[in-house]
From TrEMBL:
<keyword id="KW-0812">Transmembrane</keyword>
<feature type="transmembrane region" description="Helical">
    <location>
        <begin position="18"/>
        <end position="40"/>
    </location>
</feature>
<dbReference type="InterPro" id="IPR050640">
    <property type="entry name" value="Bact_2-comp_sensor_kinase"/>
</dbReference>
<dbReference type="InterPro" id="IPR003660">
    <property type="entry name" value="HAMP_dom"/>
</dbReference>
<feature type="transmembrane region" description="Helical">
    <location>
        <begin position="307"/>
        <end position="330"/>
    </location>
</feature>
<dbReference type="Pfam" id="PF00672">
    <property type="entry name" value="HAMP"/>
</dbReference>
<dbReference type="InterPro" id="IPR010559">
    <property type="entry name" value="Sig_transdc_His_kin_internal"/>
</dbReference>
<keyword id="KW-0902">Two-component regulatory system</keyword>
<keyword id="KW-1003">Cell membrane</keyword>
<protein>
    <submittedName>
        <fullName>Histidine kinase</fullName>
    </submittedName>
</protein>
<keyword id="KW-0067">ATP-binding</keyword>
<feature type="coiled-coil region">
    <location>
        <begin position="364"/>
        <end position="391"/>
    </location>
</feature>
<dbReference type="Pfam" id="PF02743">
    <property type="entry name" value="dCache_1"/>
</dbReference>
<dbReference type="Pfam" id="PF02518">
    <property type="entry name" value="HATPase_c"/>
</dbReference>
<dbReference type="InterPro" id="IPR036890">
    <property type="entry name" value="HATPase_C_sf"/>
</dbReference>
<keyword id="KW-1133">Transmembrane helix</keyword>
<keyword id="KW-0418">Kinase</keyword>
Length: 609
């Protein structure tokens, strides 16, 4: 097959070969890319749709949970308020068979206590959703924030769920799912209600009363209506019975798609009447209920699919455009080569004015046939070029001789240092040695980054030089872990900060600078402290703002000290080297010195330092 392909390409021109090869190398990868993009975006769209649905569901759950927490708050308040409990326990002991709809018979004091409890109930239900609160004593007495003609609280004794309260202790509660509304004033607009019930027990754990807090199911449903998406949301209980839904007719029915959700290969997609739906669920706190979101899959991915389709269309148009551009460019590039073949044939005859009509299989073949006849002239050209290159090398050599070799300077400094050492001036010799090291590091441009150990040695030499210039010495204390010494950083990162501490922080007076560095998990942390005069808040804020000044501005405003660069330059070079993983903080206060913290984070949250 390869021979067959060669035979097909053999009679073709060089231009044809180049164009076809380029087209094949671009078209096939482009088609594969478009196919893979189309295939992979399906999973991406599904994941994004699930993520959006979960986000909407979580937001809805926060509102629903808030309503349920308000109900618990009321129940907790009644159970924990000592004044209310004192009144309730006292009235619970009164076993007189009296009509709870009639005010207490024991005088003005009981009337005041009755009103106090009712007033308290009304006050704690002013905030949040409107709720109906019932305190029902075991002897039949009751307190509520609704009138007796709206509902008789003693009918709660007849509810099928009421017997479950006998086994409820402490802060345990029973959540009663959607039931038909019992309050006459709400029955027309809100056919269903949701309640929570709790027992009131004395010190002997005997029940003396009950607390029932009720809200209308429509309050929960309003949360679903106010959500920005178009999902069909509902609440189901542990028995998979629908408790809240926009369609009131479905409340109380069993959620029909639970079995599909419990399958091992469930992927949040279910089929309903031959249409795919995206389904997600979220567990609600306290209740054991779940919030369900159901949305047609096409509708869920419509916006995302539209974005991907637009991207695909842009890619397709871009491919066609650049394909045409490539074809045109290749033709333009190969056109001089065709002309060069004709020129080579003309040169073969020695007449540059004549254009040859000799044709061969392709342009490269014609150039090959004329190559031997052009060798003499090519050799002459090589000779001329060689002579030119010799003259150029001589000129370059002369120019290099005129330059000063930096190593000559280092050797001279070392010679001076040795002579000074012989004369017994060790301090001056150390000063020359430190200067030589700093000068070598400054001139050596090949080292973009150096080990932290080399950087520490630089600042040690720098402090030595500065101490020789100053009357009062600065003490540099170093606490660096072994792992930190092997870290790679840009050159002259510590020196500008040490310089600021000596000149501005310590004001060229005696003091101490602490240099600490360690590797915490995968994060490299550098801390520089001084016990200088510090800065006020205004100057500190100004310095923090200057940290993000660009490199050119930094060099214009910080031309002082050995390095000629300031904190903003240090910040920018570290950001250029480590990107978003680098953070820098400057903390200071007047009279308490200054602390500079640099952290190179290689993943995760930034550690505490």
């Amino acid at each position: 097959m390869w021979n067959r392909i060669q035979q097909m390409l053999a009679p073709r021109s060089f231009r044809f070969k180049v164009i076809m090869t380029s087209v094949i190398c671009i078209v096939i990868p482009a088609i594969i890319t478009l196919f893979m993009n189309s295939y992979l975006t399906k999973d991406a769209m599904k994941e994004q749709a699930i993520s959006n649905a979960n986000r909407e569901l979580k937001l809805a759950s926060e509102y629903v949970t808030k309503s349920l927490e308000d109900m618990l708050y009321v129940a907790n308040y009644v159970q924990l308020d000592s004044e209310i409990n004192t009144i309730l326990k006292k009235n619970a002991k009164d076993t007189e068979d009296e009509n709870p709809n009639i005010l207490p018979k024991n005088g003005y004091r009981e009337y005041v206590e009755y009103n106090r409890v009712v007033k308290t109930i009304e006050n704690i239900t002013l905030l949040g959703e409107k709720s109906y609160v019932t305190i029902l004593l075991k002897n039949g007495k009751h307190y509520s924030n609704y009138p007796y003609y709206d509902y008789d609280p003693q009918k709660f004794f007849e509810e099928p769920w009421f017997n479950k309260l006998q086994n409820v202790y402490g802060y345990e509660t029973i959540w009663i799912g959607s039931q038909s509304t019992v309050f006459r004033s709400e029955q027309e607009k809100n056919p269903y209600q949701i309640s929570v019930a709790r027992t009131l027990r004395d010190a002997n754990l005997k029940i003396y009363g009950y607390v029932i807090v009720t809200i209308m199911e429509n309050k929960i449903n309003q949360v679903f209506d106010n959500m920005p998406g178009n999902e069909d949301m509902m609440i189901i209980d542990s028995s998979n019975r629908i408790l809240s839904h926009r369609d009131k007719a479905r409340i109380g029915q069993e959620f029909p798609y639970v079995n599909q959700m419990q399958e091992e290969n469930f992927s949040n997609i279910i089929s309903i009447e031959n249409e795919d739906y995206l389904i997600t669920d979220y567990s609600l706190s306290y209740t054991g209920w779940r919030l369900i979101s159901l949305n047609p899959y096409k509708q869920a991915i419509f916006k995302i699919n539209s974005i991907f389709n637009n991207i695909f269309l842009v890619q397709l148009i871009s491919f066609i455009f650049f394909f045409l551009v490539l074809t045109y460019v290749l033709q333009t590039i190969t056109k001089p080569l065709v002309h060069l073949g004709n020129v080579a044939t003309t040169v073969q005859g020695g007449n540059l004015k004549i254009r040859s009509n000799i044709r061969s299989k392709d342009e490269i073949g014609r150039l090959s046939n004329s190559l031997d006849q052009m060798l003499d002239r090519i050799n002459e050209m090589i000779k001329e070029i060689t002579e030119t290159q010799v003259r150029k090398r001589k000129a370059e050599f002369a120019m290099l001789q005129a330059q000063i070799n930096p190593h000559f300077l280092f050797n001279v400094l070392n010679s001076i240092r040795m002579k000074v050492m012989r004369k017994g001036d060790k301090e001056s010799a150390d000063m020359i040695s430190s200067l030589s090291k700093l000068l070598r590091m400054t001139i050596d441009k090949d080292k973009g980054t150096i080990s932290f150990k080399e950087e520490v040695e630089i600042v040690q030499d720098y402090v030595k030089l500065m101490n020789m210039r100053q009357k009062e010495k600065v003490d540099l204390k170093i606490n660096v872990s072994d792992a930190a010494y092997y870290e790679q950083i840009p050159r002259f990162i510590l020196q500008p900060i040490i310089e600021n501490s000596m000149i501005h922080g310590l004001n060229q007076s005696a003091g101490t600078i602490f240099l600490e560095a360690h590797v915490k998990r995968n994060d490299f942390i550098i801390i520089i402290d001084d016990n200088g005069q510090g800065m006020n808040q205004e100057n500190l804020n100004e310095m923090r703002e200057k940290l993000t000044i660009n490199l050119e501005t930094s060099l214009e405003h910080n031309r002082k000290g050995f390095s000629g660069i300031g904190l903003s330059n240090v910040y920018e070079r570290m950001r250029m080297t480590f990107g978003e993983g680098f953070q820098m903080e400057v903390n200071s206060s007047e009279g308490n010195g200054t602390r500079v913290i640099m952290c190179v984070s290689r993943g995760g949250n930034r550690p505490n330092v």
